[in-house]
Amino acid sequence: MSDTKPRILRSVRLLNAAEKRIETDFIAPPPPTTPLDTAAILKLAHEFQPVAILVTHHSPLKGADVAALPESVKLIATVSVGLDHLDVPALLARGIAVSNTPDVLTDCNADLAMMLIIAACRRAAEYYTLMKKGWGHTLGMDEMLGHRVTGKTLGIIGVGRIGQAVARRARGFEMNVLYHNRRRLDPTHEQGATYYESLEDMLPKCNILSLHLPAAPSGGPIITARTLALLPRGSVLVNAARGALVDETALIDALRSGHLFSAGLDVYQNEPNPDPRILALPNVFMTPHAGSATVETRTAMCMLALDNVTALVAGKPLPTPVTA
Ligand SMILES: NC(=O)C1=CN([C@@H]2O[C@H](COP(=O)(O)OP(=O)(O)OC[C@H]3O[C@@H](n4cnc5c(N)ncnc54)[C@H](OP(=O)(O)O)[C@@H]3O)[C@@H](O)[C@H]2O)C=CC1
Ligand SMILES: O=C(O)C(=O)[C@@H](O)[C@H](O)[C@H](O)CO
C-alpha cells in the first residue's frame, strides 16, 4: 500500500467491481462486514483521516455529526440519489463537497414501482401467502379478485427522473397519467401526462397514486389522513420514495377501513423494522427498500460514487455534485 493514494472510508461493503477499484486506487480499511452506523463512521474517520467517505441512507450525517467530521474529509459521496440523510447545507458550509448517484438507478426504481403497482392492484401478497400455505381449494369465480391495471388513472407526485420513467412505463399499460410537482414540467417532457398544481384537484381522480418526490429534510408527510381522504374509495397507494412521506397510522386506518384497496410499499418510517401493524395487513405488498437493488444498478451506483472521489482528488469537477 502506498501512502500517496487517497484515503477513503465506506459505510458498507460495495459491489465487487467497486471493491477491486478501491484496492487498486485508494487506501481504505477492510470492507465492513455489516453496515457502519454514524457513530462508527465518525470514530473511524478520526482514526483514519480520509479525504472522502462513501455513505448510504443508513448512515445519516446531520447536525452535530457534520461538525464532528475531521478536517481531512473533503467529500461525502452518498451511494444514493436521495439526500434526506444528509445535512447538505451544513456539509457545504464546512467546505465538504457532496455527491450522489442520480440517473443510474432511475430505471430500476421505476421498474420496482411498476411491480408494486401491479402487485398491489392484483393482490400479489395475498396470492403468494395462499400458495405458500398450500392453496388447497379451487377459487370461486368471485373470490380474491383484484383490480385491472390497464387503462387506470395513475397519479404521480414528484415527476422528476424516476417519476417520468414510471409515467413512460404506465403508458405501456394504457394508463391515464396525472402528476403534481411544485412546478409544471416543460410541456415537451410531459408526454401526455396532465399537470395538477393542486393535490386537492388531482387526488380525487386517481385510481392509483405513486410517490416519487424526495423527503424534505425537515418536512412532514405529504400523505396524511387528509390527503388519503381525497383519494377515491378503493384506490391504491404506492411508495417507492421515502417512508417519511407517509403518515403510517393514517395509511393503516385507510387500509383497514377499505378506503384504500391496497398498498405497495418499498420504504417505511422505521427501517429496517417497519411498524408491525403494516406487516400484519394482508393487503400490502412489501419490499425491503430495494428500489435500486439490482446487480447492474448497484454496480453503477458504487462506480459513480467512486468516480466522484477520483474527480475530487484529481482536482476535477465532480460528475454528480450536489449543489444545495
Ligand atoms: N426506494 C428506493 O430504493 C429509492 C428511492 N428513491 C427516492 O426517489 C426520490 C426521487 O428520485 P429522482 O426522481 O431521481 O429525483 P428528482 O429530483 O429527479 O425528482 C423529484 C421530483 O419531485 C418533485 N418534488 C420535489 N418536492 C416536491 C414536493 N414537495 N411536492 C411535489 N413534488 C415535489 C420535483 O419537482 P419540483 O421541484 O418541481 O417540485 C422533482 O420533479 C429520491 O429523492 C429518493 O428519495 C430513489 C432511488 C431509490
Ligand atoms: O438512491 C436512493 O435514494 C435509495 O434510497 C436507494 O438507492 C438506496 O440508497 C440504496 O438502497 C443504497 O442504500
From TrEMBL:
One of its GO terms (cellular component) is cytosol. Its EC number is 1.1.1.-, 1.1.1.215, 1.1.1.26, 1.1.1.79. Keywords: NAD, Oxidoreductase. Gene3D superfamilies: NAD(P)-binding Rossmann-like Domain. Signal peptide: none annotated. InterPro entries: D-isomer_2-hydroxyacid_DH, D-isomer_2_OHA_DH_cat_dom, D-isomer_DH_CS, D-isomer_DH_CS1, D-isomer_DH_NAD-bd, NAD(P)-bd_dom_sf. SUPFAM superfamilies: Formate/glycerate dehydrogenase catalytic domain-like, NAD(P)-binding Rossmann-fold domains. Residues 114-291 form the D-isomer specific 2-hydroxyacid dehydrogenase NAD-binding domain. One of its GO terms (molecular function) is glyoxylate reductase (NADH) activity. Residues 35-322 form the D-isomer specific 2-hydroxyacid dehydrogenase catalytic domain. It holds the Pfam family 2-Hacid_dh_C. Belongs to the D-isomer specific 2-hydroxyacid dehydrogenase family. This is Glyoxylate reductase. It comes from Acetobacter tropicalis.
